[in-house]
Amino acid sequence: MDHITLNDGNRMPMVGFGTWNVRGESGLRIIMDALDVGYRLIDPARMYGNEEIVGEALRRSGIRRDEGFITTKLDSPCAGYGKAKYAISDSLRRLGTDRVDLLLIHEPYPDSAGMYRAMEEVVSEGTVGSIGVSNFTIESIDRLLPDAGIVPAVDQVESHVYRPQLELKDGLSRRGITMQSWGPFTEGARDIFSEPVLVRIAEDHGRTPAQVALRYLVQNGIPVIPKSSKRGRMEENLDILDFSLSDAEMAAVEKL
């Protein structure tokens, strides 16, 4: 598995497993399949209602805790310093772990600064490895930074071939922040797997359109967290690190 080194020195897998809408007993089986296939970054959240099954899947998998990478997120009910401190402890309890590798604010809130202060404290306490944000614009980041003692390590945003957000990525990079893609397949909003440009490039490489779509992002330095309930598709999405797109192919995808 390839990793990217974050601004705090911690290493994050380039390909992780998204868990939005993955819940219950069927969700537990899906996450265990993902771990068995080889995913090590699992991306649950309090508002997804699946922190418990992620923790359970990791325990059942037998994977050492230091081999896994758990992300979770704080949402609007956690806005404010005190609420965030409680929510972090509660998420650790739900996950059944004493440490989260990456903790994010789900989106900008009026008291994001208070939430972030609580997150900085748990980094110093050792219960959280890296902290960051999700769905923040550059303007939102710049409102947060003056009062931040720790520069966010990650901004997790919607990014796919139709909306890669490369300008946002460049702006974040200048601030030392890694942009990570959620929804790399558009969350079903577009029929990305039938996109002619991706189909043609995939045929030339003996790959699939899904793999080309993910490879385009990863080759732009954007980590991805695709989601699938099918084991074969999980394997396919993970198998994107041993081929490259040419400059012409990258330019063709960028035109989308």
As residue ranges, the low-confidence spans are: none
Q: Please state the structural category.
A: alpha/beta
- Share of helix, binned: 40-55%
Distance between the termini: 28 Å
> Helical element count?
10
Largest sheet: 7 strands, parallel
Give me the strand/helix succession.
EEEHEHEHEHEHEHEHHHH
Q: Note the beta-strand portion.
A: 15-25%
Number of strands: 9
Cα-based radius of gyration, to the nearest Å: 18 Å
Write down the overall mean pLDDT. Answer: 97
Name the overall outline: globular
| Strand order in the sheet with the most strands | 3-4-5-6-7-8-9
By oligomeric state, this entry counts as single chain
What would you note in describing this structure?
- With 256 residues, the protein is α/β, with parallel strands linked by helices.
- 42% of the residues lie in helices and 16% in strands.
- It is built from ten helices and nine strands.
- It has helices at 24-37, 51-61, 81-95, 112-125, 138-144, 166-174, 196-205, 209-219, 231-238, 247-254, and strands spanning 3-5, 11-13, 17-18, 41-43, 69-74, 100-105, 128-134, 154-158, 178-182.
- The protein has a seven-stranded parallel β-sheet with strand order 3-4-5-6-7-8-9. A two-stranded antiparallel sheet has the order 1-2.
- Strand 7 (128-134), helix 5 (138-144) and strand 8 form a beta-alpha-beta unit.
- Helix 3 packs across helix 4.
- The two termini are 28 Å apart.
Show the helix and strand layout.
Blueprint: E1 3-5, E2 11-13, E3 17-18, H1 24-37, E4 41-43, H2 51-61, E5 69-74, H3 81-95, E6 100-105, H4 112-125, E7 128-134, H5 138-144, E8 154-158, H6 166-174, E9 178-182, H7 196-205, H8 209-219, H9 231-238, H10 247-254
Helix pairs in contact: 1-2, 1-9, 2-3, 3-4, 7-8
